Amino acid sequence: MKSVLITGGASGLGLAMAHEYAAQGYKLCIADMQVEQGQQVVKDLNEKGAEAFFFELDVRSDEQWLSLHNEIAQRWKGLDVLINNAGVAASGLIEEQSIVDWQWILDINVMGVVRGCKTFTPLMKKKEQGSIINIASMAGLLHGASMSAYNVSKASVVALSETLRIELESWNISVSVVCPAFFKTNLTDNMRTNNPGVKKAVDNWMKTSGIQAEDIARMVYLGMEKQQFFILTHRREKMLWWVKRLSPNLLFRLMIKATRIQLKRTGGDIK
User: Fold this and answer.
1) Element (DSSP H or E) covering residue 192
2) Banded model confidence at residue 186, pLDDT cuts 50, 70, 90
3) Which residues of 5-32 are buried (b: 16+ CB within 10 A; e: fewer)?
4) Which pLDDT score, from 0 to 100, does residue 251 have?
5) Which residues share a beta bridge with 27?
6) Is 26 a catalytic site residue?
7) CB-CB contact of 233 with 181 (8 Å)
8) Do residues 51 and 29 lie in contact, with contact meaning Cβ atoms separated by under 8 Å?
């Protein structure tokens, strides 16, 4: 039976991926800061016949990552799939976003992924096989206004994933980076922003999206099976990414226009 570790697996996309991988016959480790919620997820999975355990993990803690590595090495003697999913969101114009918020989001969204990859790559190299799936965002490819800290964090995940794809190819370790746009999830629960209008707008975009977390989870699993590097889940944003690659100035003009409209709606600073 293959094994998967999912960070941030107690809710949102992480939870949806947990159920997807359980349905595919994987044994699971749900790693999350939400202890009660994570333990309930594991209980539900076990009652449905899956083999799962919970591990309390703050992705900012080197000590907890080491403890998790030792736990998985002892239980499973290796790891087949690592999904770095835990992440947070922040919004604000460059002069508004505090350095504290920058450090917070980068330590979770970037260094949390770095720590996961650094911790478990050696275990995968021993078996000379495995899959690493890093959850980024379309914000890592298309960089809209008022989201500089979030954009930078997700673009960093894309860059790290591209690097590891090259580094680990000869070890038969595949790397995928998932770049979804808006879908129904709990991303804004801990979002940091000085503009309540932005949070309201993001909530609305997620609620009105036709794509569910379960849809993304299915795409992640199928993309991993195909050893697909970019897993782009939204057709419209995928097309905009191609526009950016073929005509960057055209996309720039489109995004300027969209940003001005959005800032007017959310009460942001606009000239």
Assistant:
1) strand 192-193
2) low
3) bbbbbbbbbbbbbbbbbbeeebbbbbbb
4) 86
5) 3
6) no
7) yes
8) no
